[in-house]
Structure formats: C-alpha cells, structure tokens
C-alpha cells in the first residue's frame, strides 16, 4: 500500500504569505516584541554567523549531551548545558566567576556529585563603586539590584561542595587554583576589560584536561569582541553551542562534529 503524500497544508510555502501578513500587522501592534525579540534575535544570529573564527555546534555534538538528564531551574537552559559539559569532561573541580543567586553553582554540584565548586563574586553591592575596571550599564543595574548571592545553594546538601569566594575578579588572588580547575565558567562583569582579565585568569586556572565556558555570547559586546579577538591565538577552536549563550574552549575530545548528512536529520525524540 502506497504511503499517502502530504497535503498542501503540510508545506512551508503554504504558510509563507500568512506569516508575512501577520508580521506586517505585528509591526504596528507589538513594537516591543519586535524590538526585544525579533530584531535582537536576528542581530544575534548575524553576529554568530559572522564570527568565522568561532565554530557553531549543536548541543548533541557534545559527547553524552544528547541523552543527558539534568536537574536544574527552568528559567535558563544554559545551566543544564554547563552541568552536562562538566559531566562530559568528567570534571572534579569547577570554578565560576560570577555567583549571582548561585543557581548555576547549585546545578553543577547537583548533577555532578563528585565535583568541588568554587564560586567568586563581589563581597557586597557597594563594591561596584571601587571596581578595578569600568562596568557597562547592564552590569551596574544588575549588581545594584537586590543582593541575594548564593541563596540557591544555601542550606542545601550541595552546599558542602560549594565554596563561596569574595572579591573583585580582576584583583582576586587565583594562585591557589592555578592548574587545578577542570571547568571554569566566565560569567562576571561583561565589559571588554573584565572579560579579558577573567579569561586570562581562567586560562591560568585550567588543568591539563580543562575546559572554559563563557556566558552571554553573542549578546553583550564586550564578550563578543573579546572572544572574536582571542580565537585566532588559542591552541584549539572556540565552539558556540547553538541555542545557548555559551562559548566553549576545551582540551578534551568532547566535541564530535556531525557530518552534513547527520546534521540534516533531526534529533530523535519520544
């Protein structure tokens, strides 16, 4: 028995005109959505495509990620991916620059029971007034909001494996951590000078099998500019994980590139 052919309703061409008409109406009715989602997402896609020294990979190209199950907060999928990278790297140490509420630190510890987490942030909100380098406006607004650093892991079982460190990431003494960290997350202040400084410290902290993750690419200019600047000088590629804000550098073979044919096939789903 022959397989029935899809009807016209199943073709992308049939919804094109309807979508275009809806978009024109949306220009007038939903200007904020246009500005903060459509235009911003389009500009981010252009920047990703234009960063020819940073390779774009799918999450399923990270070894073990396609079938990974993680426990995390629903508000930000990046945390689950970070925990999955730690698992793929078989990490025993994780250093985070930029604690905030501690949800990432908790997620990493929760899903990697043998990992020791170190997380660094400013000692109090007024410390932004004496920061080593200039901060951009979004960072200033962020740091001056309600101060709730580490509340996600406070009084949890995972807190025993999470050490809270205090200080300006540009002047903090990282010497005790040099050469010891299996995964480092750079997610502190996002001005170019801070990203540059934090990256230099991250590279010094890496173990021989270390991995660095940077958050907030390509949305924030300081992150995007610094990563595109350093990409040619690194001894391995930078990978942007599509669908996340994360860029990764790794000394481990935890990335398995798909062929063009494999990439055309959608991930299996139940």
What do you see in this structure?
This protein has 270 residues and is an alpha/beta fold. The chain has one domain (53-264): Rossmann fold, CATH 3.40.50.150. Helices cover 35% and strands 16% of the residues. The protein has 8 helices and 8 strands, in the order H-H-E-H-E-H-E-H-E-E-H-E-H-E-E-H. Strands 1-7-8-6-5-2-3-4 form an 8-stranded mixed β-sheet, sandwiched between helices. The longest helix has 20 residues, at 31-50. It is globular, with a radius of gyration of 21 Å.
Largest sheet composition: 8 strands, mixed
Average pLDDT figure = 91
**CATH class descriptor:** Alpha Beta
CATH topology: Rossmann fold
Structural class: alpha/beta
Relative strand content: 15-25%
Report helical residue fraction: 25-40%
How many distinct folded domains?
Answer: 1
The Rg value, from CA coordinates, equals 21 Å
What is the total tally of β strands?
A: 8
Outline the fold blueprint.
Layout (H helix, E strand, L loop, with lengths): L11 H18 L1 H20 L3 E4 L19 H12 L4 E5 L5 H9 L4 E6 L15 H7 L18 E5 L14 E6 L5 H14 E9 L6 H10 L7 E4 L5 E4 L9 H5 L6
Parallel strand pairs: 1-7, 2-3, 2-5, 3-4, 5-6
Antiparallel strand pairs: 6-8, 7-8
Helix pairs in contact: 3-4, 6-7
């Amino acid at each position: 028995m022959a397989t029935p052919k899809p009807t016209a309703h199943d073709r992308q061409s049939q919804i094109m005109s309807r979508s275009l008409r809806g978009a024109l109406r949306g220009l007038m009715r939903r200007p904020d959505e246009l500005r903060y989602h459509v235009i911003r997402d389009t500009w981010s896609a252009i920047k990703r495509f234009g960063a020819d020294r940073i390779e774009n990979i799918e999450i399923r190209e990270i070894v073990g990620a396609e079938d990974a199950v993680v426990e995390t907060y629903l508000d930000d999928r990046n945390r689950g991916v970070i925990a999955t990278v730690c698992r793929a790297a078989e990490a025993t140490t994780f250093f985070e620059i930029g604690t905030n509420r501690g949800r990432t630190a908790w997620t990493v510890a929760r899903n990697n029971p043998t990992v020791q987490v170190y997380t660094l942030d400013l000692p109090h909100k007024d410390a932004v007034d004496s920061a080593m380098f200039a901060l951009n406006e979004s960072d200033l607004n962020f740091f001056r909001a309600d101060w709730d650093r580490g509340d996600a892991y406070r009084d949890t079982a995972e807190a025993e494996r999470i050490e809270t460190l205090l200080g300006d990431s540009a002047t903090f003494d990282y010497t005790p951590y040099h050469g010891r960290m299996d995964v480092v997350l750079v997610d502190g202040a996002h001005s170019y000078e801070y990203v540059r400084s934090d990256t230099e410290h991250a590279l010094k902290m890496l173990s021989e099998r270390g991995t660095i993750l940077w958050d907030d690419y390509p949305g924030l200019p300081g992150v995007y500019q610094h990563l595109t600047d350093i990409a040619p000088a690194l001894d391995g590629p930078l990978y942007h994980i599509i669908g996340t804000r994360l860029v990764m550098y790794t000394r481990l073979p935890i990335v398995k590139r798909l062929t063009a044919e494999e990439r055309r096939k959608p991930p299996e789903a139940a």
